[in-house]
Every structure is written in structure tokens, then in C-alpha cells.
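Input sequence (220 aa), recorded before submission:
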Amino acid sequence: MAAPADMPPLMRLHGAAYATALAEYFRSQGLDVLLLMDSVTRFAMAQREIALAIGEPPVTRGYPPSVFARLPQLIERAGNGEEGGGSITGFYTVLSEGDDQQDPIADSARAILDGHFVLSRDLAEAGHYPAIDIEQSISRVMVDVVPQQQMDLARHFKQLYSRYQRNRDLISVGAYVSGSDPVLDDAMRRQLPMVSFLTQPMHESHDYASCCEQLAGVMA
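Predicted structure, C-alpha cell format:
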């Protein structure tokens, strides 16, 4: 389903609703549906155009209240169907100006969704792909779908990665004295394997089991 930017705002709203309705139909047939929507921000902009045209006052960075009411109405239609039925797994892209995580649409989407991948401009410019900032990315359902051992490995990985990133400037200028912080020493020792684990060429694929094995190898 396509509703490009040159279409009237009402058609763009209907495009998002229609795509979700199609996914709901297949879910009602007992199928597991993957819904990809690009983007929630353009959906919000279309609603803003309509709301401002009918006299609704802007409240947050030019967005009227109806925008923040429409977002959960759209997104929360995804998820599991009735017991024994199908499901909709939705991936919604959100655009923010200048990587601003306090953008009102990004902030509202984070409150609705079960998790989010934050893409970093700095990582992309450094040639690190996929450019996922794991410090800011989160899954609220991970604890319910992965074993405790993997949770512990992922948490330890993230702690070491974050510790290194926060001290990267000290390390690069040689101001850090080895042995001052055992956790940072461990992070420095594992840095290259960690970066290798986080990067992946476009045409390369890994299944879930191999990713778990690689993570365990990095943290061994």
C-alpha cells in the first residue's frame, strides 16, 4: 500500500489505516503478519495538516492534540489476535530532526511500542552498519522471549560497550591509565570483537542460533 507525500493528507491517513486493515484481515485468517510502515512521522504530519486546517490549536512543536490521540489508535491495532488466531508484528519507522530523541513523535512512539531501534548518524558516518545505537535501543519484551542466560550476556555486553563509549576520548588521547578501572579494562580488551559482532554487511545473514553463539563467544 503506497500513499506518497504528494498525495492529500487525508489519503495519507487512509493509506496507513488501509495497510493496517489488510494486516488485520490476514491475522483474522490465523496468519502471522509482518507489517512494515514508513513512516509514523509522515502519518502524524498528515494529521497535523488536517487538524490545523480545521482550527485545532498547536500544542507541542506545532503538533495539535489529535495527533497524539491518533498514534495509539493506529499502532495498537497490531499485536496478537484472539486466542488461537494470528498476529501482527509491526515495524514502524520514526523520523526525528537532527537525531533529537526528545522529538514529540519519537517520544510518543516510544511510549506506545514494545521496543525501538535507534539509528545513529555518527555510526553511519563512521561506516558502522547497521548503524544501531545499542545504548539507546531497547526491547520491553526481551525478558519474556529469551532465556535468562542470554539476558545476562546481553546486559553484560551493553554495560561494557557503554563503558567504553563514555571513556573513548580519554582512551584515544592516552589519558587513561590501564588498571584504574577493571570494567573499562575488560571493555577495551573486548572492543574489537564487540564491534565485529555489531556490524554486518548488507548481503550477509545470520540466524538466531548463530547470533547467540557469537554473543557467547564474544563474552567468554
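Checked by second reader. The domain at 142-220 is CATH 1.20.1270.330 (Substrate Binding Domain Of Dnak; Chain:A; Domain 2).
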